[in-house]
Amino acid sequence: MSISNPKNLTELKEYIKIRLGAPVLEINVSDEQLDVAINDGFAYYYGRSHYNGTERVYLGLRIEQPFVDFFGTKKLTTVTQSTEPLVYGEGFVDTITLTSAGSGYPIQSGSNGTQINVSTTTTSGSGEGLTVNLDASRTTQQGLIGATVNQTGSGYEVGDTFTIDGHASNGTPSTFEVAAVKTSSAINGSQTFEFQNNYIVLPESVLSVSGIMRSKSFGGIGGAGGIPGIALFNPFLSGGGMGACGSMGYDMATYFTMRQYMADLEFLMFPPISYNFNQRTHRLYLNTDSFNGVGVNDYLLFEVTTYPNPVEFPQMYSDFWLKEYWVSLVKYQWGSNMTKYTQVQLPGGITLNGEAIKQEAKQELEQIRSRFAMDAADPPLDLVG
Question: Is residue 91 part of a domain?
Answer without folding.
Answer: yes
